[in-house]
Design goal:
heterodimer; A: alpha/beta; 34% helix; elongated; B: mainly alpha; 10 helices
Chain lengths: 306, 253
């Protein structure tokens, strides 16, 4: 059975930039997959190549086994893409937009599915409203309906919640979870790492056009990034410097508050507390925070950039 | 070939210009009638351009074809640049449409708008001037091919331009001069030799002259030759456009 998306040896060179430097990636059918990376890392270029919006320089990209260039019709029929920017055609109503998009995919009578989408995305009462009259959040929901109008098996959402309020974001994720439960493969790029952590099964991190990591969420979180120790201290004299073993671990010293980054398996909290007591400090509060995806992301993208 | 996809894109383009028909259909008709009033009045006493054909009668087919040309160009070019600048062209590019279907839909819709504006100008002048219809077959052929050339040019301009300013340049420095200097207002027989020869390089001259032949049965050039040259322009421009679309030039960079 072919992968939902397979990318092999993918390069994209612009005159001044080598945007993708040999990406290899396979997204399995039915996966909820996260594609993360800092701005300008190459995420959107990769998605645009998968969608056929950008031509690649070298490599191969397939959607459900169909080459996105040679078999573009089959590849695009299986793929629904929600672009990052909120864009719309100001000439048409919501229903017209969805009927037209259906027609592009060769679907003549698609109103039953269009109505279902409008209901699911809370747009039913806006069906005959011109696109110009919709709020930003509604326009984004219409874009999601446009991406799903041909019932694609693979759905790519490029930063779908950027600028969307908390309530709408929640209902959007409920909708996307439902799609996933129905068997759709979901590929998500987002800047909200907690979203990726909550939703995605596997995650790829792209940095400077290269794949910095590709693993399950659990494996990424267990990469030995460590944990954060936050302490509140009282001292006779404010701590001007930390004892040498702790200085290299300090992330922040702010009066009586101290934040240390501890390495998993190597650093002991007791040893830290003992070292501080040795300097005459009294520890009045301790908080421990396990590494989250954001820490992993920062670590991976920072180290690759050194 | 995905017929329904092509039809949908064509339908969308037609629906687009019908949604703003004051601007896309009615305004050009009024503009053509204003030309007719001004030039018809100012030059009414001139000697007949063709034997037995008064200046106003001579002028009307030229104005119709000029309207066809300018509106066919405006439709494909403005639709493309608007969709590019607004970003909604992405929804067409994401669809499983071939470059040939993309091309055919944009050109067909632009031809239709040109023909509708031309028909509107013709119908609006009917109560005032009784034009003969010597060769309806030639009329139809020159209308369609004459609209096809600027429609394709509009696709080229719309794909090439990345901002409205560039499109305005293409329109004002290429399409408008070529359409004005195509023998709309005069017979090229009245021009000095150099300008007459230069007019033969202008594809729109053949459209206007052949179209006029359809009404009066006389023209500056043999209609078969005119249609052949116009058709050759259409083929060459279409081949260039299809190449641009197939390679994704400025659309799928």
């Amino acid at each position: 059975m072919p992968d939902a998306i397979s990318v092999a040896g993918l390069h994209k060179r612009y005159p001044a930039v080598h945007a993708l430097k040999g990406i290899d990636l396979a997204i399995r059918r039915g996966e909820f997959f996260g594609l993360l990376g800092p701005n300008g890392a190459g995420k959107s270029t990769l998605i645009n190549i998968i969608a056929g919006l950008t031509r690649y320089t070298e490599g191969e990209v397939r959607v459900l086994g169909h080459d996105v260039v040679r078999e573009y019709r089959a590849a695009r029929r299986h793929l629904g893409v929600v672009p990052q920017e909120v864009v719309f055609d100001p000439f048409f109503t919501v229903r017209e937009v969805l009927r037209i998009q259906s027609g592009y995919f060769g679907l003549r009578r698609n109103d039953a599915w269009i109505d279902e989408l409008l209901d699911a995305l809370a747009l039913a009462d806006k069906a005959d409203t011109n696109m110009r009259a919709l709020s930003g959040g509604m326009k984004r929901r219409v874009m999601i309906a446009q991406a799903l109008v041909h019932k694609p098996e693979v759905v790519v959402l490029d930063e779908p919640t950027a600028g969307v309020d908390v309530e709408q974001r929640k209902s959007l994720w409920e909708f996307v979870r439902r799609l996933h439960a129905q068997g759709h493969t979901i590929v998500l790029t987002t800047h909200y790492l907690e979203e990726a952590e909550a939703l995605c099964e596997r995650i790829a991190i792209i940095n400077r056009g290269e794949l910095a990591a590709l693993d399950t969420k659990e494996a990424l979180l267990a990469r030995g990034i460590g944990r954060t120790l936050r302490l509140t201290l009282t001292t006779g004299e404010p701590l001007a410097t930390l004892p040498p073993p702790l200085a290299s671990k300090a992330r922040r010293i702010d009066g009586t508050r101290l934040e240390l980054q501890l390495e998993k398996g190597a650093d002991s909290i007791i040893a830290v507390l003992d070292a501080l007591r040795g300097e005459g400090a009294t520890v009045v509060d301790v908080a421990i925070e396990e590494a989250d995806l954001e820490d992993v992301f920062v670590e991976l993208t920072r180290s690759a950039g050194r | 070939m995905m017929h329904y996809g092509l039809y949908t894109l064509f339908y969308k383009e037609v629906l687009r210009f019908f949604k703003v028909l004051l601007q896309t259909l009615l305004a050009p008709i009024v503009t053509a009638l204003l030309y007719l009033v001004v030039f018809g009045q100012a030059l009414a006493g001139r000697a007949d351009a063709f034997p037995g054909v008064g200046y106003v009668e001579f002028l009307i087919p030229g104005l119709i074809m000029m309207s066809v040309i300018q509106n066919a160009f405006a439709n494909s070019s403005s639709s493309l640049i608007q969709s590019k600048v607004a970003g909604n062209l992405v929804f067409i590019l994401l669809a499983p449409l071939s470059h040939l279907e993309f091309f055919a839909a944009f050109v067909a819709a632009a031809v239709l708008r040109g023909v509708l504006v031309g028909a509107g100008v013709y119908l609006a002048t009917l109560p005032f001037v009784d034009l003969p219809l010597a060769h309806p077959g030639w009329l139809i052929a020159f209308t369609v091919v004459g609209a096809g050339v600027p429609a394709v040019l509009g696709v080229i301009a719309g794909v090439w331009a990345v901002k409205f300013d560039q499109l305005a340049g293409f329109q004002n420095f290429i399409v408008v001069p070529l359409s004005f200097l195509s023998g709309v207002f005069y017979s090229i027989q009245a021009l000095p030799e150099f300008w007459r020869a230069l007019s033969h390089l202008n594809p729109f001259f053949y459209a206007v002259d052949g179209f006029r032949y359809g009404f009066f049965g006389v023209g500056d050039t043999d209609p078969l030759l005119s249609l052949g040259i116009l058709g050759a322009f259409l083929l060459v421009l279409s081949a260039l456009t299809l190449f641009m679309l197939r390679t994704g030039y400025r659309l799928r960079d």
